[in-house]
Amino acid sequence: MKRTLMNQPASGFTLVELMITVVIVGILSAVALPAYQKSVMKSQRSVAKGVLLEKAQLFERYYTTKNVYPTDDIGATTSPKDVAAGAVRYNIVPTMAADSFTLTATPTTAQAGDECGVLTLTNTGAQTPAANGCW
């Protein structure tokens, strides 16, 4: 007995099945992408905090030997960078005086939307912002 096209079972996907799959992938992407971006910002913030703490240690070491803080930026450390893209995520600027210093990390590029904003560290150890687990 010969089979005709009408008697063969259908194969493949229907348009409805394909559209349901596209909708599910879209919903999952809408949930996952913001969480991923927040995680990337948090990791870049950790790198910036590490650089701030490293510079503060260098300034304190200088203070213990000379009894004054340096008047210019010492300790050539690199700014936090995204190694793959080479993009600077924070601009780190020290404000120096003989008896104090303030280190400021200002977010740039994609990091500018970070919930913590500008990070600062002073010679007294004061860290701002202190809310939302920024430090």
From TrEMBL:
PROSITE patterns: PROKAR_NTER_METHYL. Pfam families: ComP_DUS, N_methyl. Keywords: Membrane, Transmembrane, Transmembrane helix. Gene3D superfamilies: Glycoprotein, Type 4 Pilin (3.30.700.10). SUPFAM superfamilies: Pili subunits (SSF54523). The chain crosses the membrane at residues 12-36. NCBIfam families: IV_pilin_GFxxxE. This is Type IV pilin protein. It comes from Massilia antarctica.
